[in-house]
Amino acid sequence: MYKHFRLEEFNCTHTNANFMDEAFLTRLDMLRDEVGFPFRITSGYRDISHPSERHKSNGGGTHTQGIAADIAVSNGVERMTIVKKALEMGFTGIGLASSFVHVDM
């Protein structure tokens, strides 16, 4: 279905549920083409009961809506490339951490 990912890579690590948005995954697959290097998803769909979502007062974030992913990075060049290409492609949410880049719609 996708060139670079298996749907199971986006399963919730807490419940194994997966309600990822197809349009988001298609765009993420295109992002992988644009950056020109493989990347690993560290977090995709998160059930509302996931420990990272339970404390959120709005009923969960973009991960619970299936429109977010965290992408592992190992250096600043990867981080910069992913952010630059994601912005060019219209991803509307970008978050930076030392070991990953968060992208969402």
Quick structural gist:
This protein has 105 residues and is of the alpha+beta class. The chain has helices at residues 22-35, 51-54, 76-88; strands at 41-43, 68-72, 93-96, 100-104. The protein has three helices and four strands; from the N terminus they run αβαβαββ.
Mind explaining what this structure looks like?
It is a single chain. With 105 residues, this protein is an alpha+beta fold. Helices cover 30% and strands 16% of the residues. It has three helices and four strands; from the N terminus they run H-E-H-E-H-E-E. The chain has helices at 22-35, 51-54, 76-88; strands at 41-43, 68-72, 93-96, 100-104. A four-stranded antiparallel sheet has the order 1-2-4-3, with helices on one face. The radius of gyration is 13 Å and the shape is globular. The chain starts with 21 loop residues before the first helix and ends with a strand. The mean pLDDT is 94.
Integer average pLDDT = 94
Please identify the structural class as seen in this structure: alpha+beta
DSSP helix fraction: 25-40%
Q: Distance between the terminal alpha carbons, to the nearest Å?
A: 20 Å
What is the N-to-C order of secondary-structure elements (H for helix, E for strand)?
HEHEHEE
The main β sheet shows up as: 4 strands, antiparallel
Rounded to an integer in angstroms, the radius of gyration calculated over CA atoms is 13 Å
Fraction of residues in β-strands: 15-25%
What is the helix tally? 3
Count of strand segments: 4
Shape descriptor: globular
In which order are the strands of the major sheet placed?
1-2-4-3
Low-confidence stretches: none
